[in-house]
Specification:
Elements (H helix, E strand, L loop, with lengths): L1 E3 L4 H12 L7 H22 L7 E9 L2 E7 L25 H9 L2 E4 L5 E7 L15
Antiparallel strand pairs: 1-2, 2-3, 3-5, 4-5
Helix pairs in contact: 1-2, 2-3
Length: about 140
C-alpha cells in the first residue's frame, strides 16, 4: 500500500496491519510490539525520509509467512546510515529526541534491517498463535 507522507497516515497503516492479523488471536504484548514498531517506522519514513513533502508517499508492504509477520516500509528520501543513530540509553544521549524510534524497533522486533541506501526498513516478528494460516502470496498487502 502507498500512503501520503502525512502524520495522519501513521495510525492508518498500523490499524490496517493489525486488522489483517485479527484471525491470529495474538496476545496483547505482540499486538503492542507490532503497533509500536509500525508506527515508529512509518513516522520516521514520513518525518525524516520524506520530510513531510507534499505529494510524497510512503510504501508499506506486509505479509505473514511461516508464522512470521514481515513488514517493509520505504520512503522517497535520500536515506540514512542506520549505524550512526545515537544509542538513546547512553548518558550523553538520554535527553536527545533522535534515535529512540530505531532503538525501540530493534528491541521489539525479532529481525530488523535497512537497505544500503537507508530509505527502506524490513522488520520481522514471530506470531505466537495457535492459528498460523499464512496469507497466500497473491494476497500480500
Amino acid at each position: 500500500m502507498k500512503v501520503p507522507s502525512e502524520i495522519k497516515s501513521i495510525k492508518r497503516v498500523s490499524s490496517k496491519i493489525l486488522s489483517s492479523l485479527s484471525s491470529y488471536e495474538l496476545n496483547k504484548d505482540t499486538l503492542f510490539d507490532i503497533r509500536l514498531c509500525t508506527e515508529e517506522a512509518v513516522r520516521n519514513a514520513i518525518v525524516h525520509g520524506s520530510g513531510l513533502r507534499k505529494g510524497s508517499r510512503v510504501s508499506v508492504y506486509y505479509w505473514v509467512d511461516k508464522g512470521k509477520l514481515h513488514i517493509e516500509i520505504e520512503d522517497e528520501g535520500a536515506g540514512f546510515d542506520s549505524n550512526t543513530v545515537p544509542d538513546p540509553t547512553e548518558n550523553s544521549n538520554i535527553l536527545k529526541k533522535s534515535g529512540r524510534g530505531v532503538y525501540l524497533i530493534k528491541k521489539f522486533m525479532d529481525r530488523v534491517s535497512f537497505n544500503e541506501k537507508g530509505n527502506k526498513i524490513k522488520m520481522e516478528k514471530a506470531l505466537l498463535s495457535p492459528h498460523l494460516n499464512p496469507l497466500p502470496r497473491g494476497e500480500r498487502r
